[in-house]
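Quick one:
INPUT:
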């Protein structure tokens, strides 16, 4: 298999999860799509020739940088425009929660689906309340199942920082989620 085909398969395998991660970070569909697309372009441009085992953490480093840049731009914009709230589109209209609208392939009963939906809504709200670095580490470690070393590489920080931010994020989520925490 050629490197181009391997790269396409790699990008296809992570695009959905990368989008959900970006959306969870910003709450805006278009911004999340732009961040993922930009991360993919930059990744292919700069790292396509790197060994396959390095692709995942390198891609997530680029994506995390895009998320951080977006967060900074939004903070400046929000100072002037006021806070629009989570799950708003560019026109300020409310959007569906991505966790609520994700398809359930597990064949759950409506009651089970409602419980899961409530738990995901609580998780989304709690994630939005975390500081950006804690949110990033939590998503990389818990959602993407990156190792401490891979997460450190993706975030361009030390392994100790990853451990500290992850520990603080888990504690904060446990405190905030209470009954919703598994």
């Amino acid at each position: 298999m050629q490197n181009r085909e391997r790269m396409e398969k790699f990008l296809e395998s992570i695009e959905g999860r990368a989008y959900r991660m970006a959306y969870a970070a910003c709450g805006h569909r278009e911004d999340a799509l732009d961040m993922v697309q930009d991360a993919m372009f930059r990744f292919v441009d700069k790292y396509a020739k790197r060994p396959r085992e390095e692709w995942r953490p390198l891609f997530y480093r680029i994506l995390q940088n895009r998320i951080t840049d977006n967060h900074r731009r939004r903070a400046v914009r929000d100072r002037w425009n006021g806070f629009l709230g989570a799950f708003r589109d560019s026109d300020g209209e409310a959007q569906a929660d991505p966790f609520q609208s994700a398809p359930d392939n597990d064949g759950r009963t409506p009651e089970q689906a409602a419980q899961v939906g409530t738990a995901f809504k609580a998780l989304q709200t709690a994630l939005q309340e975390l500081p950006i670095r804690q949110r990033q580490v939590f998503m990389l470690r818990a959602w993407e199942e990156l190792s401490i070393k891979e997460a450190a590489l993706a975030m361009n920080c030390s392994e100790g920082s990853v451990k500290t931010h992850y520990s603080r994020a888990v504690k904060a989520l446990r405190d905030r989620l209470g009954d919703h925490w598994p």
